[in-house]
Amino acid sequence: MAPNIDNYNADELEAPAWLNEKFFKEVLIKFLNDPNVKVINFETSPATAKGDHYASVMFRGIVEYSTQKGTFSKSLIIKTMPEEDGHKKEFLGESHIFPTEISMYTEILPKLEQILAEAGEKVTFCAKCIYHTREPRQVMVFEDLVPQHYEVIRKRPASVEEIKSALAKLAKWQAVSYKLLQEKSSLFDKLQYDLTTMPNFLEQDLLKTAFPLFLESLQSVESLRKYVKYFEPLKDVVVQRWVETIREYRENRKDNTYYVLCHGDFHVKNMMFKGTDCMLLDFQMSYVGSMANDVLYAVYMLLGPDERREKYDELIYYFFTTFTNTLSKIGYKGKMPTLVEYRRQLFENRYIEIFLATTFLPTFNHMRKGNDPAEFIENADKRRELFFEKEFHDELEYLLPRMVHLGYFEQLK
């Protein structure tokens, strides 16, 4: 049965001509280390539903093949760059996302898993990358997690158990990276880019129009107007302060900050779950930065509205204790990070939270419901609608007083 085209991204409905028998044979030869493998048949289809991702093009290939041992079938995920002219191609064309992700899958994450395994902690962070190339085009091929019964969460919030599973994976990888960075490891030297360094990203309409729309949105609700005075002075600096915070390790390193390997795009669509087990996806934006960064991102992009309101402190505590317990397990001998100092660093990086609440939250609420991110990235009218939705205003009714009560706007530079 043909897929319902409304459920998929338009640029993933038809596989490119190069996704052919020759390509799949090349992939299988490398994966199986068998030059005599034969491709019997293959079928391609879109790999993900609309709204699951934006920064790549993805296909699923189910390949039937034979070797001397018999006939087999394997489901693969093929990730590549957009070929159709348009916003996505312009946005991603000159970026460093593929070299970053290749390094993460082939060098960095296997090393982190190895260190944990040697300490008796068996952890798998992600699907196995079985093939990659940058010429004649940038392509990565992964084992498909769907046959292993992992699923992307769609059209519902993640449960507390699922959130904890994701935060535990993050805490464990960040603990190992913290130890390695303290030991001056060169493992992360290739990670010199992040979301803020994407070509033209800071000039995107999404970023340039969001804060003015946010202020206008506050003015439209009587109970929220009183918060305009806190945000108005930030309109010309909030994006730049967010950028400076993300790039801090590379450009303005501080002596006492807890620096770790950051995922860089740690949201609910970049995870797959089987029960409460979590696999992480998409390491295109990974970088070294403050341990506060991914967790603050998760507060707005992984937690649902109820968890933001009721479980914020509990989940941060859970993340931090998992982090320090992992440090102990892997034999870290340095000064142990403290919760008090970590909370101070979360507060110090509050521009991230201000930026996310005013810029990404309304648009991500739209994605969370299974809608296509291209709708608001490329459509100004749709973007405007999202800032005036009642659901967004309802969240601001408790998020903004919390910021005021915690002193978020005092001594901001």
Tell me the layout of helices and strands.
Elements: H1 21-32, E1 38-46, E2 57-67, E3 70-80, H2 87-92, H3 97-118, E4 129-133, E5 139-143, H4 160-182, H5 205-219, H6 228-231, H7 238-246, H8 248-251, E6 259-262, E7 271-274, E8 277-280, E9 287-290, H9 291-301, H10 305-310, H11 312-329, H12 339-348, H13 350-368, H14 374-377, H15 380-387, H16 390-405
Antiparallel strand pairs: 1-2, 2-3, 3-5, 4-5, 6-9, 7-8
Helix pairs in contact: 3-4, 4-11, 5-15, 7-13, 9-12, 9-13
Task: Give the tags.
413 residues; Aminoglycoside 3'-phosphotransferase, Chain: A, domain 2; 2 domains; two-stranded antiparallel ribbon; CHK kinase-like domain-containing protein; EcKL
Molecular structure report:
It is a single chain. Strand 7 and strand 8 form a beta hairpin. The mean pLDDT is 91. The chain is globular, with a radius of gyration of 22 Å. The protein is of the alpha+beta class. It has helices at residues 21-32, 87-92, 97-118, 160-182, 205-219, 228-231, 238-246, 248-251, 291-301, 305-310, 312-329, 339-348, 350-368, 374-377, 380-387, 390-405, and strands at 38-46, 57-67, 70-80, 129-133, 139-143, 259-262, 271-274, 277-280, 287-290. The protein folds into two domains: 5-92; 99-124 and 151-405, Aminoglycoside 3'-phosphotransferase, Chain: A, domain 2.
